[in-house]
Amino acid sequence: MNDIHAGTCRYFVTYTGIKLPFKLVNPLTEADIHNRNTFLRAYFDDAERLIGFQKVTYGEIEMEHRYEYHENGVLRRATVTDVDEEVTVLSFDSEGRARNE
Prior knowledge:
By secondary structure, this protein is mainly β. The chain has one helix at residues 30-33; strands at residues 8-16, 23-28, 38-44, 50-57, 60-69, 75-81, 87-92, 98-99.
């Protein structure tokens, strides 16, 4: 699993869409997050691809997504950890089609 903390950190209000990787919307500054109960802490690689995010609620991580990409930039793997720490791993071929592991 990739180390999302190696990426550039930015903050957002929420995400949109149903297709992975999610699109993060409504950027926040670091000062903004001190006045919010819930926000997304997101990490981007040098190519500005989203490599992961954490939904933070009242200071606790409620959900986490980690993304890995094929050489062509298409999502290869998504690892989702929910509030109960249940982990779901989704894999995709180089065309973006879901595949079974």
